[in-house]
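Each field is listed here:
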Amino acid sequence: MTQMGAQGFSRRALLGGAGAGLAVGAIGGAVGGRAAASPGPAAAPGTGAAAVPFHGPRQAGIVEPAQARVHLAAFDLAPAAGREQLRTLLRIWSATAARLTRGEPADGHENQIALDAGPCSLTVTFGFGATLFDKAGLADRRPEALAPLPAFPGDALDPARGDGDLWLQIGADDALVAFHALRVLQRQAAGLAVPRWQMAGFGRTPGATARPTTGRNLMGQVDGTNNPKPDDPDFAAKVFATGPAWLAGGSYAVVRRIRMLLDDWENQPTDRQERVIGRRKSDGAPLSGGPGAGETTPVDLAATGPDGTLAIAPDAHVRVAAPASNGGAAMLRRGFSYQDGLLADGSPDAGLLFVAFQADPARGFVPVQRRLARGDGLSRFLRHEASGLYAVPPGAPEGGYVGQQLLEG
């Protein structure tokens, strides 16, 4: 009931799966969107019992609502591993993910961390980095769209925290459930793949607000308004790949670790922050909408104020990132906040784990990020510190495993 089947999107995906967002280079959509809850700190009814099927035509973790917790991780094949070892690993991982998403214990390396918890909307999403194909003897099957991302002005990327042969996105509405899945899968990879990097993030917890609402990022901005919606006529064309054959129905994931310069940002008055973004901070309404506008009021990039100047500044984030400013380029953003303590200068090491799914990075992330890097006023408050690009295969049928079309097709 969560994945897009052959006849369309599920009710769960339609009601909450798309999320929304203020834009690619900086702000992704960490969304609420499950059943309404009563005000107060209590968890939403059924949070622990909510289950997202692992098997299906699409991998879970793309159109579903972003969960409260996420682990992103990359692995490299072990030095002696090749195609057969990769097949073994993906079979093990797929079988384990299927069990864990049903709330069942793992077959191997079960550690009882989440023994008394339900599935908590757990999803496990797999992606393949460009370097995997040579190591597994599959260079002739590497998609052209998996070419390395170009360098962007202002990037300060740490290679040790980017790329990788295999990528995992593990999301759940309970922190122990998410960590349990990561730990089990990591131990099952022993001898076949070695960890390259890991990052942990968080979003809004179901039941934390009186009604389902678009979440906020660490800058305090409503974050996720303009994401594509599954019922948009061109949603699939923007998000899901059509080829090569083994990838048809899959997607491409761009992952960026984006540190927010929160001390600098929080020293700006609220009206200045709003001009940088192009939306009111209180409710996410566009500055072009007038007093009665709400978050979903369409942005009017031509609107002017009483003094004749543009209501949304030329370098406002929503203007620079808008599809209308980028030849229609768009992607499905599924971002999470992160906080990793303090840097040496005392500033917070915190920001956004940006994940964006798209049919083709050359028509999605790349043109938008180029424009953002050149002219987005928000860029002064951000540092892009890690990056990765991965081909995300379609889902696995019952009895199959993710990547089977690539390895056995």
